[in-house]
Amino acid sequence: MKFSIKDDSKKMNHQVLLRLCLAMVSCSIAIWSVGYSAMVQSDAANVKLDIGNNGEQITVKEGTIIEIVLEGNPTTGYSWFIQNLETKYVVLISEKTSPKHSPSEYPHRVGGSTHFIWHFKTITKGNTEIKLNYYRSWEGISSAVEHFKIKVTII
Q: What parts of the sequence cross the membrane (predicted)?
């Protein structure tokens, strides 16, 4: 039986090369899938979110407008409040309320559900969170009965 160190080292080199190729292909697929999902989300100039998006992470481009619409009932004293917005990454550009139902649907209705609507604009690349809490202002944030939070990656 012939034993050759040269043959064994060639086998080992081929195995190492094969493993490196497989690792590169795996990494390429992973990077492509992450890049593709980010690209799909960030192609929109505007992103619309509601309570169903609570706890999610989104990826958007600089200059994207993020609209958040949450329901509330201000006649009970409750309102949504923004918590610690990092204005280095995201700024509030508008905030308004709108009745959930049009007056023509319920002409004699007083009070009722309201949409709280915010528009935020992304400023610079980075990671931040947008957090909103639903509470009565005189009771403070510790009495919040509902929370909304999204993680934002700006590319």
A: 16-39
**pTM: predicted TM-score of the whole model, two decimal places:** 0.69
Cα–Cα separations (whole angstroms), residue 2 to 5, 9, 27, 64, 69 = 10, 15, 40, 68, 77
- DSSP bridge partners of 45: none
Banded pLDDT at 27 (limits 50, 70, 90): very low
Please compute Rg for the chain using Cα positions.
26
- Second CATH level (architecture) for the domain 44-154: Sandwich (2.60)
- Per the document, the length of the chain is 155
Q: What angle do CA 100, 106, 112 make, to 5 degrees?
A: 45
Strand order in the sheet with 146-154: 57-60, 146-154, 126-136, 78-83
CA distance 101 to 79: 18
Mean pLDDT of the chain, nearest integer: 82
With beta carbons less than 8 A apart as the criterion, state whether 47 and 41 touch.
Answer: yes
Q: Greater confidence, 45 or 93?
A: 93
